[in-house]
Amino acid sequence: MSSINHAVEMIKSICGSLLNSKSNWERHRCARCQLPLTDYASVVNGIGPICANKNTALFAKTIKANYVMVLAYSDSVDIAKLPSITVPVWNILKDNVIPAMSAAMKSNPDLYNFFHDGNDTRGFIRIIDWILSFPGIDGTTRKNLIEIVRQLGYVAVASVLEGKASTGESKIWFDTSVGMLCLTGSSCKPGYAAIKKLNGSTVPKYRGDKTPYRVPAKYHEEFLSAAMTYWPCFEEKAEDVVVEALNWLATRPAEIIVNNPTKSSNSFVRFLEAKDGVEFTMVWEKDRTYKVVADIKTIPYNHRKYKPNTKSWFISDKYKTRAEEILKLHYGEGM
Ligand SMILES: [Zn+2]
């Protein structure tokens, strides 16, 4: 059985012969961005130099691999639909799925669920990029090949291949002052939808709005998955950002009410049980927040306290009901 390295050698020799009749590779397009490939090295890689430069960022964003699904999707690829010149290379990939799975299982017996750790299956992606750069791949074959990439754990690469990810610069961080995970990046429709559906999240209001996407700390898994899938080119360490969110959550009292989306999807209040009282934070809104604050100040000063470091209000137990009434008045029945 031939190794993945052998497949790469085979690709080089096939592209060498394509090069002799240049018209044969002029129709090849970058598997990632669909732009025409204009030189031999790019045709060999199946991707252009700009997309190749993003590989480090993309390959760093992986989730657990699922080899059972890798096998299922590779069995679904109909070789009659592949460009015939690529079939020998595809066969090498297919022959290597089970050996790769066995190798990975040695370090982790759960074949449904494990991370690659340096156990390199990037060679598979390398071959799939190359096949996808050929003209005339049908939709089903394309989908099966991309699913193999995703099931190998390379979520970011898969979503770039699907055309669903923004490959522009992005940034993620945790804002301790409001307890929100934040992200900035170029506009991305599927990413927008993924973030927007999370309760209590806020999204930019219009194209070009530089306001970050924000997600409550407790949705750290969903946040990370959306960031890796749709805005994978961030440089921050995802684990560090999540740890910050977890630490913040650990220091907070149990949250009893979050958000009321009825008046405006972007307004929200976090209302927390605190020792001897309640605590809440508000997102600043020019027409609303000062009225809320004015009402809070009707509570005797020794029973309320503004905490500038967390930008939150503490109200003692005695005036808890009053505080709830004030918030209900300004933010509606959802409170
Ligand atoms: Zn490209």
Description:
Helix 5 packs antiparallel against helix 6 and helix 7 runs antiparallel to helix 8. The N and C termini lie far apart (64 Å). 44% of the residues lie in helices and 12% in strands. With 335 residues, it is an alpha+beta fold. About 3% of the residues have low confidence. The radius of gyration is 26 Å and the shape is elongated. The protein is built from 14 helices and eight strands. It has three domains: 158 residues, no CATH class; 76 residues, no CATH class; 77 residues. It has a five-stranded antiparallel sheet with strand order 4-5-6-8-7, with helices on one face. Zinc ion binds next to helix 3.
Which short descriptors sum up this protein?
335 residues; alpha+beta; three-stranded antiparallel sheet; binds zinc ion
